[in-house]
Amino acid sequence: MRVEVRVFATLRRYLPELEIGEPKLMDVPEGTTLGDIREILGLPAKEVKVIMCNHLQAGPEDLAADGDRITYIPAVAGG
């Protein structure tokens, strides 16, 4: 299965090869969870506060499907 992954803000430092907003295309086997993908990418669990899959909030236990667009978002503060 092929998925498209994006990371934002402070999580970008774990994928320095990507330009701002550039997705990482990944091939993953059936049965891979969003938490598994986070681990493969080397994103620390404590830094990922929100996971989005196809523009809907998801959890690390949710299974990825072919063509999914997955986004990992850290805690963001400001005002």
Describe this structure in words.
By secondary structure, this protein is mainly beta. It has a single domain (2-73), classed as Ubiquitin-like (UB roll). Helices cover 10% and strands 28% of the residues. It is built from one helix and five strands, in the order ββαβββ. It has one helix at 34-41, and strands at residues 2-7, 24-27, 50-53, 56-58, 69-73. The protein has a five-stranded mixed sheet, with no helix packed on it. β3 (50-53) and β4 form a beta hairpin. The protein is globular and about 35 Å long. It starts with a strand and ends in a 6-residue tail after the last strand.
What is the element layout, followed by pairings?
Elements: E1 2-7, E2 24-27, H1 34-41, E3 50-53, E4 56-58, E5 69-73
Parallel strand pairs: 1-5
Antiparallel strand pairs: 1-2, 3-4, 3-5
- Specify the structural class: mainly beta
Query: How many domains would you count in the coordinates?
Result: 1
CATH topology: Ubiquitin-like (UB roll)
Helix content: 10-25%
What's the mean pLDDT score? Answer: 95
Largest sheet: 5 strands, mixed
CATH superfamily: Beta-grasp domain
| Count of helical regions | 1
Question: Which spans of ≥5 residues are poorly predicted at pLDDT below 50?
Answer: none
Order of helices and strands: EEHEEE
Radius of gyration: 12 Å
**CATH hierarchy class name:** Alpha Beta
Main attributes?
Ubiquitin-like (UB roll), globular, 5 strands, 79 residues, mainly beta
